[in-house]
Amino acid sequence: MSRLIVCSEADLPSVNMRESLLSQGGWEDMGSSEGASYMRREDDVMMSIADMHIRHEDLDLEAARFGVDPDYVVVMSRHSSKSGRPALTAHPIGNYHEADFGGRTETLVRSAPAAMTDAVRRIHALNSDPSVQTCFEVTHHGPWLGKPTFYIEIGSDETHWGDRHLAEVLAHVIADLEPHDEYRSLVGIGGGHYAPRFTEAALSSRVNFGHMIPNYQLEGRGDEDIARMIRDACEATATDSVYIHRKSMKGPEEHRIADIAASLGYECVKSKDFEPLRSQL
User: Fold this and answer.
1) Which one is the CATH code of 3-176: 3.40.50.450, 3.40.630.50, 3.30.70.60, 3.60.15.10?
2) Domain 3-176 matches domain 184-273 at the CATH topology level
3) Residue 135 contacts residue 120 (beta carbons within 8 Å)
4) In 3-state terms, what secondary structure has residue 43?
């Protein structure tokens, strides 16, 4: 599959990941257009832009005008967290409600479940430092793109953003991705921002996660709004299956979410039904 890998010159981890990828060799200069430069290696094209990616809307259309038409997009980025804990993360993008950080209001970008979940598995396999967290993050922020997209990130603050070893880890992850499209794709519902249950399920089972709706997006929302979020997440993940982190919410709320999903025609799957991931990377 062809991929567009995006680097932001304004983002230090993004630049370090790009340099690590380039150091692997095999890249050819394609030239530049509209302020962006392009490098190619086999089916991969790396696009470098000057500004921050989260507000650079329609990256894929810009690349298309240059003749690049990828199957999906990987954006290399830093991750910010008040905890300061070092982390390597991957997540889908879009906004369930307000578009405070790029993208469109109440609009999700199509996810890339197989590629993104393989990225988390590979990060886990290559990350030898137990102090560095490996996890999904739930769906958040822009930009808007028409192509399936996920972010891969180094966090959590400026003390970790310049870590070249972590950049090398993620560069190897990106280079070696082998998406398992045959695994079942799921929308995750419930839990917190760092999606511990969905990460755990991805590392132990033959499932892929696309969009994820955390509890903080559900709190205080009416049935119609929740139904919209579930519908949008399933459509942007191209799945009819949802997985609810039941232990993260009280029983009545769990039943409410499950009933809404069922009323939309989606299947609520349980972890006991997952096929174990028999071999690690």
Assistant:
1) 3.40.630.50
2) no
3) yes
4) coil
SS3 51: coil
Cα 92 to its chain centre, rounded Å, is 3
Q: What is the mean pLDDT of each run of 10 residues along the chain (281 residues)?
A: 96 98 98 98 98 97 98 96 88 98 98 98 95 96 98 92 96 98 98 97 98 98 98 98 97 97 98 86 57
Q: What does pTM read for this prediction?
A: 0.97
Are residues 123 and 165 in contact, defined by beta-carbon separation less than 8 angstroms?
no
- Phi and psi at 161, nearest 5°, equal -60, -30
Instruction: Determine the Cα–Cα distance for residues 240 and 246; give it in Å rounded to an integer.
Output: 18
- The topology under which CATH files domain 184-273 is Rossmann fold (3.40.50)
Angstrom distances, CA of residue 69 to CA of 4, 45, 215, 269, 276: 8, 9, 36, 34, 35
Query: How many whole angstroms separate alpha carbon 254 and alpha carbon 133?
Result: 28
Task: Give the three-class secondary structure for 67.
Answer: coil
Going by C-alpha positions, the residue among 32, 65, 24 that lies closest to residue 49 is 32
The Cα–Cα gap between 116 and 12 comes to 22
